[in-house]
Amino acid sequence: MNHAPPRPPLRGRSEQMGRVLDVLRRAGRSGQGAVVLVTGEAGIGKTALLGVAAEQAARLGFAVGAGRADESSARVAPLAALFAALRSGRPPLLAAEAFGEPGPVHDRELWLVDRIAPLPALSLDLARAGAVLGQSFAADDVVGLVGGFRDRAVALPGLEPLVRAGILADDGSTISFRHDLLRQAVYADIPPTVRKAMHRAAARHLMSVGGKTRVVDAAAHVLASAAPGDLEAVDVLREAARGAAGMAPVMAADLIREAFALLAPGDGLWAEVGLETVAMLAQARRAHEAMTVADRLLAVTSDASADVVARAEGLLTLPLWSMGLLRELRERAEKGLAAADLPGPGRARLLAQLALASSRDDDLDAARTVGADALAAARQLGDASAEGAALWALGEIERNDGRNEIALGHFERLRDLAGTAYSADEILTLQLLDR
Prior knowledge:
The chain is mostly helical. The chain has helices at 14-30, 46-59, 71-76, 80-87, 108-116, 121-133, 139-146, 152-155, 160-164, 180-188, 192-209, 212-223, 231-245, 249-261, 270-283, 287-300, 306-315, 317-322, 326-337, 344-357, 364-381, 384-400, 404-418, 423-434; strands at residues 136-137, 168-170, 175-177. The chain has a 3-stranded antiparallel beta sheet. The longest helix is centred in the middle third of the chain and has 18 residues, at 192-209. The chain starts with 13 loop residues before the first helix and ends with a helix. 34% of the residues are buried.
C-alpha cells in the first residue's frame, strides 16, 4: 500500500492552529456548523495551515473534503469550490446521486460546472449550439450548426454524454435542456462575438432547410445578430414576415418593422420595405403605427416619386377609415392627386380613396362621380387593387344614399375580387334590403 509522504511540521502557527482546533472541538460537541476564515498575503503558509487543519479534523471524526478556487472559476460560479469540496473525499460528503438533477436556483451553475467540465470537446460544442438554438431543438439542427461534420453519424454521439450528464433530455423527436436555467448558463458562457456569429449561422442553416416555420425561427436568430444596414437580415425578416402575414398578422408586422428599422433613407430598399411595413401594420389593425411609418417614409424621402406617395396613401385607407378619420383621409388623397407626375394606377387608387372619404358627405352625387371615375380608370388599367377600392367606395356611397340594391351589386363584385374581406359590408346591405 502506498502512503502519502508525511506533511512537514507546521512552524510558527501554533496560535492560529489552536484557534482552528477550538472551533473543531466546539462544532463536534454542539453539532452546529462553523466557519474558519484564513486570510493573508501569498506565501505566508495559508495552504499549509489548512492542510494540517484538515488532518486534525479527520482525526476528530469529521468527514473531510477539499476544493480549490481561482479567479476564473469564481466568475463563472462563485461557490464552485464549495461544491467540489462536497463531492470530494472518501467517501464524499454528498454522493453523486444527490446531484442527479439541478437543485435550487443558486446551485444550478455549480451543478453545471460539475457536469460539463469533464465532457469531450464535441459535446461542449453541441451544448453551446443547442443553447443558441433554444430550449428545445432537433438533432439535425444542432449538428448542422456545429458544422464541420459531413457525416451526421460522427456528430450525433457527442450528444450522448450531455444526456447522461443530465444536461439534455432526449424524447426521441426533440432534444431539450432539462431546465432553461441550464441553457442560460451555457449560453452566457459563450463569448458575445462567438454568440453573434452562431446566431447568424443558425439563421442560415434554418433558411437552407426551408419551410415557413423555419423561416420565422431563422428571423429570431437574425434579430440576435443583425446590425444597421444588414441586407441579409433584411431579406430574412421580409421573407419571414410574408410567411406569417396570413396566419399571424401581428407577428408579421413586428418582423417587417424590424427589417425597416435596419435600413436608412439612403438605402435602395428604404421605400420598398417602408411600403411593406405600412401594409402589414395596416393589416394587423395597428393604424397609428402604420400612419407614423408612412409619414416618416414620405417625409424623409422628400424626392419620393408620386407613385410611392400614392401607394403609401392607398395603404392607409383602411386604417384611417376604421378610425373614422375621414377628413384626414380626404386631405391625404387630395394632396396625392395634386402631384404632377402621378401615374395612372396611383391616380385610380387615390380617386377611390377620395370617393370613400366623401361617402358620408351631404353631396353624394359628387362622391358617386369620383367613385365612378376611379372604377373606370382602374378597369382601363386592369388594376384589381384599385378596382376593389373603387367598388368599396361606391358600395358605401350607394348604401348611405339608401340605394341598397345597387350597393349590394358593388359588394358582390368586390367579393369576386377580394374574397371575404368585405363580407360584413355585403351582409349588412342584405339586412337593409330585408327591412
